[in-house]
Amino acid sequence: MTQTSHFVPPQEPPVSSAINIAVSSLDEEDGNAYFAEAEKNEKKGDYDEAITLFGKAAFEYNSSKQFSRYGTALMRLSNVHYLQSHYTEAEQVVLNVALKNYSKIGSKTGQMESYSQLGKIYLASNKLTQSMWFYTQQGILAKQIGSNNSYIESVLGLAHVKIRKKEYTMASRDINRAELLARSANTSVFKNQIREARALIPAKATIRKS
Question: What is the pTM of this model?
Answer without folding.
Answer: 0.84
